Amino acid sequence: MELQQSSLYISYIEKLGWHTSEIDGSTIIFRYFPIYGALAKLQRPTRLPSPDTLNKLLREKRIRRITVEPDAVVSQTAFDEWRKKIPSVGGNPFLPTKTILVDLTATEDEIFNRFSEAKRRAVRRAEKHGVIVRESANINELIAIKSKSAGLFGSITTYGIIDLWSIFSQKHASILLAQHGGVLLIFWEDTSYYWIAGATHQGKKLFTPTLLVWEALKLSKKRGMKQFDFVGVWDERNPKQFHEWKGFTKFKEGFGGTPRYYPVAG
């Protein structure tokens, strides 16, 4: 089960004011808007619900539009055929359609040696600069760093993070902080999610983001996780979507992971 279908994530979504409904083993989330009606999301189901059952639910809940983002185990062909039977399905994806996964079952040395030469060098430079990474239970420290690094969009990028932390901490989440940088990790089943990260200009000069990823990988492995999910990169199948992600996509590609593709709406 992917994180978006987990009980804790559903609790988080409900805390943000969304409604939920079960259908064929998955959870749909939806929200009502004045005049327009309701918009819904079905995120990362491992199997697609019955079209008849879904269409009936959409009518009952007065949902005008639903965005469906299947798990990677659903084939593109199956998704394309299924979509034809759901008149209300459509819209741009809310979740990334491609991510990068790092295998954590290897040894630490093997994981590190799979980094690009530039990333290995950046880790050593950060350590030489005296950058120290520590675990923290103070989500406000991370929010302050993220807000500063995001500038005018700081409040948008950190929306809901306090609620997320209150539900997942500390059994299912961890905060790593360093000089001018920080990362929030979410743990679910055997996967560690690189949920939110930020670094100031000074932190980037010290190579803090790279060291944070390395420490996040090691911590995730110690927590018993089998894979590390970078939670989204730019998808060449849809180059106009999230095109602003090309910069940090290159950053994430340097850690030796493999891509995972999700079905996309054609």
From TrEMBL:
Keyword Acyltransferase in annotation: yes
GO molecular function, one term: aminoacyltransferase activity
Name of the protein in its database record: BioF2-like acetyltransferase domain-containing protein
Similarity comment text for this entry: Belongs to the FemABX family.
GO BP: cell wall organization; peptidoglycan biosynthetic process; regulation of cell shape
Matches recorded under InterPro entries: Acyl_CoA_acyltransferase, FEMABX, PG_Glycine_Bridge_Synth
Protein keywords: Acyltransferase, Cell shape, Cell wall biogenesis/degradation, Peptidoglycan synthesis, Transferase
